[in-house]
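Q: what sequence does this backbone want?
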Protein backbone atom coordinates (compact mmCIF):
# COMPACT_ATOMS: atom_id res chain seq x y z
CA UNK A 1 0.00 0.00 0.00
CA UNK A 2 1.53 3.37 -1.01
CA UNK A 3 2.48 5.55 1.96
CA UNK A 4 1.58 9.25 2.05
CA UNK A 5 2.66 11.79 4.67
CA UNK A 6 0.43 14.86 4.96
CA UNK A 7 2.12 17.90 6.51
CA UNK A 8 0.13 20.95 7.58
CA UNK A 9 -0.03 22.95 10.80
CA UNK A 10 -3.83 23.05 10.50
CA UNK A 11 -5.33 19.78 11.70
CA UNK A 12 -8.53 20.37 9.71
CA UNK A 13 -6.54 20.49 6.47
CA UNK A 14 -4.66 17.28 7.32
CA UNK A 15 -7.92 15.50 8.13
CA UNK A 16 -9.59 16.77 4.94
CA UNK A 17 -6.70 15.76 2.66
CA UNK A 18 -6.48 12.34 4.33
CA UNK A 19 -10.22 11.80 3.86
CA UNK A 20 -9.88 12.73 0.18
CA UNK A 21 -7.15 10.19 -0.62
CA UNK A 22 -7.66 7.28 1.81
CA UNK A 23 -10.50 5.80 -0.28
CA UNK A 24 -7.97 5.35 -3.10
CA UNK A 25 -6.00 2.89 -0.97
CA UNK A 26 -3.23 5.06 0.46
CA UNK A 27 -1.73 4.49 3.90
CA UNK A 28 -1.80 8.01 5.35
CA UNK A 29 0.18 9.48 8.24
CA UNK A 30 0.21 13.09 9.38
CA UNK A 31 2.67 15.66 10.71
CA UNK A 32 1.89 19.13 12.09
CA UNK A 33 5.17 20.76 11.02
CA UNK A 34 8.14 20.38 8.74
CA UNK A 35 10.25 19.33 11.72
CA UNK A 36 7.76 16.54 12.57
CA UNK A 37 7.79 15.48 8.93
CA UNK A 38 11.59 15.19 8.90
CA UNK A 39 11.42 12.97 11.97
CA UNK A 40 8.66 10.87 10.38
CA UNK A 41 10.79 10.33 7.24
CA UNK A 42 13.66 9.08 9.38
CA UNK A 43 11.40 6.68 11.29
CA UNK A 44 9.40 5.19 8.45
CA UNK A 45 9.80 5.55 4.68
CA UNK A 46 7.05 7.20 2.65
CA UNK A 47 6.36 7.38 -1.08
CA UNK A 48 4.78 10.83 -1.18
CA UNK A 49 4.67 13.96 0.96
CA UNK A 50 1.86 16.47 0.60
CA UNK A 51 3.02 19.60 2.40
CA UNK A 52 1.78 23.06 3.18
CA UNK A 53 4.31 25.85 2.73
CA UNK A 54 3.65 28.32 5.55
CA UNK A 55 4.17 26.53 8.87
CA UNK A 56 5.99 27.19 12.15
CA UNK A 57 9.31 25.54 13.07
CA UNK A 58 10.35 24.27 9.63
CA UNK A 59 8.37 25.60 6.68
CA UNK A 60 7.41 23.66 3.58
CA UNK A 61 10.21 25.10 1.44
CA UNK A 62 12.83 23.93 3.95
CA UNK A 63 11.10 20.54 4.15
CA UNK A 64 11.14 20.11 0.36
CA UNK A 65 14.84 21.00 0.20
CA UNK A 66 15.61 18.50 2.98
CA UNK A 67 13.54 15.70 1.44
CA UNK A 68 14.96 16.15 -2.06
CA UNK A 69 18.51 16.08 -0.67
CA UNK A 70 18.13 13.19 1.79
CA UNK A 71 15.36 11.15 0.12
CA UNK A 72 15.34 12.06 -3.59
CA UNK A 73 12.92 9.23 -4.48
CA UNK A 74 10.11 10.68 -2.34
CA UNK A 75 7.64 12.64 -4.45
CA UNK A 76 6.42 15.96 -3.06
CA UNK A 77 3.21 17.89 -3.67
CA UNK A 78 3.24 21.43 -2.25
CA UNK A 79 -0.06 23.04 -1.24
CA UNK A 80 -0.61 26.65 -0.21
CA UNK A 81 -3.29 29.26 0.07
CA UNK A 82 -1.03 31.73 -1.68
CA UNK A 83 1.25 34.49 -0.59
CA UNK A 84 4.88 35.04 -1.28
CA UNK A 85 8.02 36.92 -0.50
CA UNK A 86 7.51 40.68 -0.78
CA UNK A 87 4.80 40.02 -3.36
CA UNK A 88 7.39 39.11 -5.98
CA UNK A 89 7.65 35.35 -5.67
CA UNK A 90 4.70 33.06 -5.13
CA UNK A 91 5.33 30.36 -2.51
CA UNK A 92 4.16 27.63 -4.86
CA UNK A 93 6.55 28.78 -7.60
CA UNK A 94 9.38 28.69 -5.06
CA UNK A 95 8.28 25.19 -4.00
CA UNK A 96 8.52 23.99 -7.60
CA UNK A 97 11.95 25.62 -7.98
CA UNK A 98 13.32 23.78 -4.93
CA UNK A 99 12.01 20.42 -6.08
CA UNK A 100 8.25 19.97 -5.56
CA UNK A 101 6.93 17.53 -8.15
CA UNK A 102 3.54 19.21 -8.25
CA UNK A 103 1.81 22.21 -6.70
CA UNK A 104 -1.80 22.89 -5.73
CA UNK A 105 -3.32 26.18 -4.64
CA UNK A 106 -5.80 25.97 -1.74
CA UNK A 107 -8.67 25.50 -1.97
CA UNK A 108 -8.35 22.68 -4.47
CA UNK A 109 -10.89 20.25 -5.87
CA UNK A 110 -10.93 16.52 -5.10
CA UNK A 111 -10.16 15.70 -8.75
CA UNK A 112 -7.11 18.03 -8.71
CA UNK A 113 -5.70 16.36 -5.61
CA UNK A 114 -6.40 12.84 -6.85
CA UNK A 115 -4.79 13.62 -10.20
CA UNK A 116 -1.67 15.11 -8.55
CA UNK A 117 -1.35 12.13 -6.18
CA UNK A 118 -1.84 9.61 -8.99
CA UNK A 119 0.78 11.38 -11.12
CA UNK A 120 3.23 11.47 -8.20
CA UNK A 121 2.75 7.78 -7.51
CA UNK A 122 3.44 6.94 -11.15
CA UNK A 123 6.71 8.87 -10.99
CA UNK A 124 7.60 6.99 -7.77
CA UNK A 125 6.95 3.67 -9.48
CA UNK A 126 9.11 4.53 -12.48
CA UNK A 127 12.02 5.72 -10.31
CA UNK A 128 12.21 2.45 -8.34
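A:
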Amino acid sequence: MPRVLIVDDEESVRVMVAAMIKPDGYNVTEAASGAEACDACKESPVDLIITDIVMPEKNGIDLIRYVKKEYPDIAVIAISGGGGIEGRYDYLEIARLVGADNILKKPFELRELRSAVSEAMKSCATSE
